[in-house]
Amino acid sequence: MFKLLVAFLRSLLLPRLALLLENVALRHQLTVLQRSAKRPRLRKSDRILWAWLSTIWPSWRSCLVIVKPDTVVRWHRLGFRLYWRWLSRPKRTGRPKVPLEVRELIRRISRDNSTWGVPRIRDELALLGIQVAESTIRKYRIRSKKPPSQTWRSFLKNHVKDIAAIDFFTIPTVNFRVLYCFIVLRHDRRKLIHFNVTAHPTAAWTAQQIIEAFPFDEAPKYLIRDRDGIYGNHFRYRLKHMGIEEVVIAPRSPWQNPFVERVIGSIRRDCLDHVIVLNEAHLVRILSEYIDYYHNARPHQSLDHNSPLPRIVESPDNGRVVAEPILGGLHHRYRRAA
Q: Could you give the percent of the chain with pLDDT greater than 90?
């Protein structure tokens, strides 16, 4: 009977004794660790765990070794402040955000029109159906550090109608004679308003070509030319009498007269490089036909891919496409025929 009682007490006390010894061992190790190691680094999740345990477990202080209880209380209060700060965060107020396309349009208008102020940009946007405040335009427009100035492209476009250019180029004939072709080009629509051919150019002959090219009320303000000796005193006197100001390019600098040089290159590549000239009359006939094609049919990149005399876009409803041969089939003009 006694042995049974001892066995019963032993089975009852041994598990609790083992648990007690385990707690003693763990506490001893924590004490040694706290005594020998530096301050442990706690993560945010650790702080949240102990703050939560402090609210649901009355005896949480008895097991706390790593930090002091006051630290856990401070963590809990900090979490409470953060929670109410999140609840009391300011709501989004004020004017609605300006759409990205409107902001880009304001920057584009201010960039393209350097002399426009805020009221002018606002009026332009209002005409486009966009209502914005002046403060918004003032915020997003591009400000220039220097005084507003037009671009060189704008400056040249504003004066291009008053500019013409002249030049000579040579063509060999079938019997090895050299003919001189004189051309006059208006810059605004790249129109060849006059040309003539001679075997013996002189200053008087060249001056007469200027008279034939420009009626008195259609003379340009400026005439660009090179330093060829053919433009003598008689030629300069005639220009001065017509109110035309000469613009002489630098020596050996054909790039300073680019439009007329490009036209001469087009005449050679499109026409003269493919024919043998017989005489002056033959050359005049060929150039007349090519210049008519050049004005009425040939597209130009600088003229929005249209001809100097603009062509009308023909709808497919106008009929099928037919071809008209130019210069014996060297080129063709295409149109729609009903």
A: 36
- Work out how many domains the chain is built from and give that number: 2
Contacts of 76 (CB under 8 A, 6+ apart): 51, 54, 55
What residues of the chain score a pLDDT lower than 50? 2, 6, 8
Determine, yes or no, domain membership for 266: yes
Residue with tokens 């008209």: 324
- Ranges of beta strands (E only) in the chain are 163-172, 178-186, 191-198, 222-225, 245-248, 320-326, 331-337
Q: How far apart are CA 290 and CA 199, in angstroms?
A: 21
CATH classification of the domain holding 324? 3.30.420.10
Work out the end-to-end distance of the chain between its first and last CA atoms, rounded to an integer number of angstroms.
130
Query: CA torsion angle for 257, 258, 260, 264 (degrees, to 10)?
Result: 130
Reduced DSSP (H G I as helix, E B as strand, rest coil) percent helix, strand, coil of the chain, to 5: 50, 15, 30
State the pLDDT at residue 151. Answer: 72
Residue type, position 35, single letter: R
User: What is the three-state SS of 107-131?
Assistant: HHHHHHCCCCCHHHHHHHHHHCCCC
What the block records as the tokens of 22 is 């385990």
User: Tokens 């107020």 — which residue?
Assistant: 93
- What's the rounded Cα separation, in Å, for the pair 302 and 178? 32
Q: Are 292 and 192 in contact (CB under 8 A)?
A: no
> 5-21 pLDDT, tens per residue?
545 455 555 566 666 65
pTM of the model as a whole? 0.59
- Cα 327 from Cα 67, distance rounded (Å): 102
Residues 244 and 129 in one domain: no
266 Cβ partners below 8 Å, 6+ apart? 294
How far is residue 95's CA from residue 34's CA, in Å, rounded to a whole number?
Answer: 57
| One-letter identity of residue 47 | R
